[in-house]
Every structure is written in C-alpha cells, then in structure tokens.
Amino acid sequence: MHKNQLVFFNTLTRKKEKFNPINPGKIRMYTCGPTVYDYAHIGNFRAFIFEDLVKRWLEYLGFEVFHVMNITDVDDKTIKRSKKQKISFKKFTNFYTKAFFEDLESLNIKLANCYPRATEHIPEMVDLIESLLSKGFAYKSKEKSFYFSIRKFDKYGKLSKIKIDKLKLGKRIKADEYEKDQVQDFVLWKAWVAKDGEVFWETKLGKGRPGWHIECSAMSMKYLGKTFDIHCGGVDNIFPHHENEIAQSEAATGQKFVNYWLHNEHLLVEGCKMSKKMGNYYTLRDLIKKDIDPKAIRLLLLSTHYRAQLNFTFEGLESASRAIERLRNFLRRLQETDGQSCNKEIEKKIEIVKKDFCDALNDDLNVSVMLAVLFDFIREINNLLDENLIRREDAEKIIDVMKGFDSVLGIIGDLDKCSLPKEAEILIKEREEARKNKNWSKSDKIRKKLKNMGIILEDTPHGIRWYLKKS
C-alpha cells in the first residue's frame, strides 16, 4: 500500500530520501530508550511517541518491523541517583524500568520486539572494545580506562556535521554526556573508582563499567546486525551520542552502521524550555494526577511534525481531548446509523481519504496534513449522517477505515467504549416516553442525569443524538 512512495528526512544527508529497506518488506529499527534514573518526562515521551508513529506507519504499509529499544540501566546518572537515595543499584534501576513500561501502556505505545539492558550485555561491549583496540581506534589511559581516538576515524562528524579540524581538541572526556564544543576522545570503558561503589564488572579490560555510547552500538548490532535500516532519537542525541555510535561501530566493522537517521525536535512547555526551576517540568504521572486523559497527551505529542518544535500547552491538551471526543462520537454515530438510501459517492470518498492519508504520512510523516484530511472526512460523513444518507453496510466500511487509521494514531481505543452504557439506553427510552406524554419535567430530569453520566443529548429532526463527554 503505497510503500514505494515513502520518504524520510535523513539526518545523515540532511535531505528527504525515498525509503528503501535492506531486505524488501522487512525493517530493522533501533530507538534510544530511557535512562532509568527517574520517571520519564513529557519531552522523553515526545520522542517515544514519534518512534511509535514511525513503527505503526511502517506496519500499516505492510512492512514487518523488528524493533529494538535499549534500556540504559548503567551510566553516571543511575549510579549517582541510586547512591543519593541510598537504594541498591539494581533495585533502583528495576523500579524505574517498571515505571517506564507502565507509562508506555498508559500512552498506548506499542512494545518493541526486544528491550536489551546494558547491564546484561557487558561481554558484547568488551568484545567490541577489544576489536577497536586491535584495529588501532582505541587506547588505554594511565588510569586504566579505554578511549576512542576520534582522530583515527576520518569520517568523524558526518552525522552532526562537526568539523573537528576547525575545533580545539581536548585530550579526552570521561563523562557520558558533554557539550557540543567538547570534541574530545570519548570513553569506552571506565576503570573503577571509589564513587562507583558496587557498580563494576571484572572483565579482560579490568575492573570497571562501560561508557554510555558503547552500550548502544554493542546492543543494536547484536540484535540487528552490523548495518540496519533505521535509528531514531531526539535531536539532542545527534551529538555526541549518535556521532560516537557511528564512529565506534563503523571503525569496528568497516561497514555502514545505519542507513536512515530520524530525529525529533525539542519540546517546549507553554513556550518555554522545560525545567524544574521554571515549574513547567512534567512527567506523564504528573499530568495523569491532574485527571488528564493519556490519549489526549498522546495526540498532542504527535500532532506537530516531528522535525518542528512542539509547544506543549494545557489549552492544547483541551483541544486534543475534544478532538478525541469528536472521533469517538463519530464512530458511535456510524455504529448506530440505519440509513436506507444508497449513496454511490461513499466508496469514492473512502478511496480518496485513504489515498490522502497515505500521501501525507508517506511525506516524512506529515501529521498536520494527515489530521486535516481525517477531520475533513469526518465532517463530510457527519453531514451525510445528519441527512440519514449512510447505509449500515457503508457505515461498516467507514468504521473499518477508521480502525486502520487508528492503528497508526493509537488515540481512539476500544470501539466498544464508544457505545452507550445499558443504564443510559434505558434512561433515553424513558425520556422518549416522557416526551411523548409531554412530561417535560421528567424529560429534563433525565437529561440532567445523563449529563452527569457524561452523556449529552441533542434532539434533531431525525431523532435523538447523543455524545460522550468527559465527566
């Protein structure tokens, strides 16, 4: 289904490219997962939902996607935070790993095929470092740590476009994360120091632990091969993390590491950079405590093109919530329609919306155009429903199309939840009887009771219409 028209903006080349997988029909995809030292915040989830959209769209097109997402359960942050909280390292990281999976479920993010943990792949990392040593790309320092020599890899900077010969180079840097102007040899293996406490492994490289960057290279290549199709992440990962992944992976194998690099832009909150100092820092759990529907959070986070900054606002959450209500009520109307007239234009409208939906997402996941297409279609069909011009069989076809669209969006959920509760059905029938008997007082009382249940009634020339509203 329109596979051949799919294009992505490749960060590596800085241009849109037609997508051609290594193996026809099958895609190998790696996405940078969480560092499990705290609850993930909404900026993290913008990336995870963007990656979920990539995967869902590929699957909609008929591709078989093998998706790997790592769990960074050993790095500077996890060690420092677990010591600060005086919790054993393993118990600490297990707690936040479990929380991450609970959040994925809340946001209806599809699970990856594989979630390798860094702590369970130390041998693979050691082997990769030994390969780099044997080929002259790595060296051992006096303090017995191992570093990658970026001068030895002549393609360093090809992802971030950094020109290392024009920058002042330091000797080396041991921290997992550092600034863009710190172009230095980066650590592969950190020799144990007292502040690491219980976190170390005895290996052929000595007592210590891996650097952050080597983790992703070792795990991605183990499960996806030396060269794979897609690597995703936030723009903050381009340098140094993804640049270093490319350098160490290609230096070790002599082969291209990844064909397509996809990166999402930053998230703002109410127009400002998110920070705890600004008071605009939110985890998913913070928002759920405010009684915000996770589906609305999901819709807002995916509603702006992934390469544009997204401004996360509470007004935007309200709009997203109303949009989801509109979708659910549309499906409810389709489930209940009993129109008899044959509308020969329905098939044509269905084909047009499917094509336009595909064209939008095939164009580097243009969600803005896709959502406009979707809601224009809903408006057209609602107009026909108002005139009682949608037959039962046509309604079923439209519902099937909407189910397909929601397999990509993941925001509507179980269609059974669009149906009317049994108690409400009884009340609506009682109200109809009261209206026939001109018992307006009883009719109004029932309407108010239904409203309190989150059901809004509308009397139309074609009969009663009802809408599900948030309570």
Can you tell me about this structure?
This protein is α/β, with parallel strands linked by helices. It is 45% helix and 16% strand. The chain is built from 14 helices and 17 strands. Strands 5, 6, 7, 8, 9 and 10 form a six-stranded mixed beta sheet that branches. It has a four-stranded parallel beta sheet with strand order 4-3-11-12. The protein has a three-stranded mixed beta sheet with strand order 14-13-15. It is elongated and about 95 Å long.
Sequence-ordered SSE layout with sheet pairings:
Layout: E1 7-10, E2 15-18, E3 26-31, H1 42-60, E4 64-69, H2 76-84, H3 89-106, H4 122-134, E5 138-140, E6 146-148, E7 172-173, E8 185-191, E9 201-203, E10 206-210, H5 212-224, E11 228-234, H6 238-253, E12 258-264, E13 267-269, E14 272-273, H7 284-289, H8 294-302, E15 310-312, H9 314-336, H10 345-362, H11 367-386, H12 392-409, H13 422-436, H14 440-452, E16 455-460, E17 463-468
Parallel strand pairs: 3-4, 3-11, 7-8, 11-12, 13-15
Antiparallel strand pairs: 1-2, 5-6, 6-8, 8-10, 9-10, 13-14, 16-17
Keywords:
471 residues, alpha/beta, Rossmann fold, Isoleucyl-tRNA Synthetase, Domain 1, 3 domains, 6-stranded mixed β-sheet, 4-stranded parallel β-sheet, 14 helices, 17 strands, 16% strand, elongated
